Amino acid sequence: MKVLDYQPFIEDHFFIKNKYGEIVPFKFNDVQQVYYDELDSDYPNWQGIRENILKGRQFGLSSLITALFATDFIASECGEIPIIDSDVYSHKDEETSAHIDRFNLFLNSYLIRSQGGKLEDMDNFSAINQLRKAFLRIDNGGEIVSRKRGAQYHAQTASAKVSGRGGTKQNIHWSEVAFYPNTEIMNAKKLVVGAEKQVPQDHGKIFRETTGNLAGDYFAKEYQDGKDRVSQFRSRFIAWYTYKAYSKIPLDDWMPPEYYQKLLVEGLANKEQAYWHWLQTKGLEDKEELREYPTYDYEAFLYGGDPLFDQEALIYYTNQVQKPMRKALYVQAL
After folding, report:
1. pTM of the complete model
2. pLDDT at 159 (0 to 100)
3. Domain map of the chain by residue range?
4. Alpha carbon separation from 221 to 146, 193, 230, 233 (Å, rounded)
């Protein structure tokens, strides 16, 4: 199976909507680049990808994963790789719509660029519609089946009704999986485990990508298993300071609290980044924002919900825990 060189294709063919609502060429930001390089290193053939991603907000990782799936869809239709069937699940309808819109934007920009078009041609809706009709057999905005080979892309809201079990998939993206429904009838574990069995072992791509929610929930347990290397999934934590755009020039008299000293000393963040985080978390007092922009992975879970014990105490003692020694050598004196 051909190994695709994703980044050059994405950056040459895709446009994306930035945070200001502008359509611009898709160039990887620093977080996307770091994560892409890690994937490329850990999965040289880009198969058998199994990822638990715990992250801060607005890094663009959902956009990157959608771009990978869009590239697979296009390459499959061009006969470069086998037929690809991809699913993305979101935790609420508006997020599902956002995934659909993003995929359609990537497909439209590819169709324009493949004809030698430029960014300004994205406003030519008539031309885009004609190109889509020539490329797609079924086009209803959410389910896209190609004219030639049958590659598919589905974007759905997570529920028991859409959890496939009997078919075959190559790609699955669980977006904000920590926030899926959690009842006896419908819960994240049943949905995820059932659907993931459709992806053949050691093939395809499965991304579970989310901000943290509650300690002890399905994703928290799966994340810890991946971290402890007792799972097929690799667990990665991407802290807020990885995204260098989160930065603000501090007031002259602002001194970084002790909370940031380790980051500053180790060069993980600078004073401008620390000041941005301090403002974002309202002087480190807003626990929900600390969960949304965690510095350490355990903050993403222990700042969620309403635990019986004091959250600050839980954070402190969790940080003091050391893993037991896996091996010990005993010497007996006679």
Report:
1. 0.88
2. 74
3. 6-238, 244-320
4. 38, 13, 11, 12
